[in-house]
Amino acid sequence: MGTASGPRRVGIAGFEHETNTFRSGSTPLADVTIRRGDELLVERGRRTYAGGMFDGIDEIGATAVPLVIAGAQPSGPLEREAYLGIRDELVASIVAAELDAVVLQLHGAAVAEGVDDVEADLGAAMRAAVGSEVAVVGSLDLHANLTSATLAPYDALTCVKYYPHTDMYDRGREAVQWLGRWFAGERFATHVERLPWLLMPTATDVAGPAAALELCDAAEREPGVLDATFVHGFPLADGPAVGASVLVTAVEGVADPAAVASRLAGRIWARRGEFEVELHDPATAVALALEAARDVAIGRGPVVLAETSDNPGGGGVGDGTHLLRALLGAGATGLFGSVLDPASASAAHAAGVGATITVSLGGRLDPTSGPPIEATAEVLALSDGRYELRGVGWQIDLGASALMRIGAMDVVVTSASQQVFDDGPFTIHGVDVRTAPLVAVKSANHFRAYYGRIARAIVPVLGPGLSAQTTTLPWERVQRPIWPLDPDTTYPDTSYPDTSYPAP
Ligand SMILES: [Zn+2]
Predict the structure, then answer these.
(1) What is the mean pLDDT of the chain?
(2) Is-contact 409 387, C-beta < 8 A?
(3) Per-residue confidence (pLDDT) for residue 394, from 0 to 100
(4) pTM of the predicted structure, to 2 decimals
(5) Could you tell me the distance, in angstroms and rounded to a whole number, from the CA of residue 476 to the centre of ligand 1?
(6) 168-183 and 49-59 helices cross at what angle (nearest 10)?
(7) How far is the CA of 160 from the centre of ligand 1 (A)?
(8) Cα of 234 to ligand 1 centre, how many Å?
(9) pLDDT digits over 389-401, tens only?
(10) How far is the CA of 155 from the centre of ligand 1 (A)?
């Protein structure tokens, strides 16, 4: 493994998918983007996981060996053969590269057909191939559903701490810093303490999550504790691994990660009432937004409405019409980003800027989307839907897109599914969001990284949709009891098992 002399060889690989098991249909290989070898070099200099990994590898004086990173937009479970093919390619690339270590970009909430915990399965396959002499570390998203089986194959896993995920780069870099410690002879002890808790996506600057960050921060100052993270989990996954947890990584023999994690879990659980965010139905939200837009006393900038219930970043389909219909019904003036509707985008491109077309917009991809919006639309601008994400450097591709005016709303219509992070969907159509009285976006929290700085007020919206709250979903396979489905759920509760999984 590796060369006896010369720099250590560290492979960069990964597989990322956030699986919403409530989506109908599975995710085929065609929906997975796979980048190999030198294609990963574009990550150098970006504020991404892999960007941090490249920099970390330079810092510890090792040689980066870019291998394979695969990923897909949040969607339904991966087709079994697609996952197994990706897994086997990843493992083969790691074996062939003769590495001293591998650092993986993972999500932690990937599910494939017949594989409830993809990260556990992938890690086990890798470990079986490389043995114990090669270090295997990785990074996780905050929305990871973890069990001890997930952790078992890895020497250690870092996890994003903030939502919006502003620390992806730091976590990628941290995972490699831990490799530096591993090369120096340290070994790690890890523990995941599972909580019986379906936590809806919640920004980390509100009361409860902020308190959890402080508690974890204090724990990290204890001797031997490398990392303590309250992992929010991804709640739209009907399986035995779903739920929030506390992940602790310690230097082996110096600190006891299980004791630290269970203490933190108890304290955070006790404050779970502080995690509630007030969400409004579309009609109420629009009324509140219009009122805030008229109130000059509360500051400058647009009022931002966030349709959390149809967030393509959480497995929402992106063609829901509930919020847009409420805005049109109220006669609101503003911007809407965006509605996934390739046919309407294509019709706009065919008609050209300045044309007036008849659209039947959205409302097709899921029964929760609501009916299409039947309207006359003026085509204001066209684009190829490509832009670079502010502050991160990711290339976003919305496909052929158009800005069209329906009533007094200027609506971005796209050909590819994507949540709204920043102002990119509007700027590519020549619009400055800062001058709009009102901006509506399909996103749960990631929009806050940009819009939090420019909005005079933010109004979260909960309508029907596949990224809506948990209590209304048709649960079948989740471990019960679990809060808030079961209001009497207690923790600690020894009847709540730490599940492990057989290989597929
Ligand atoms: Zn996430």
Answers:
(1) 94
(2) no
(3) 86
(4) 0.86
(5) 24
(6) 30
(7) 8
(8) 8
(9) 988 888 999 999 9
(10) 22
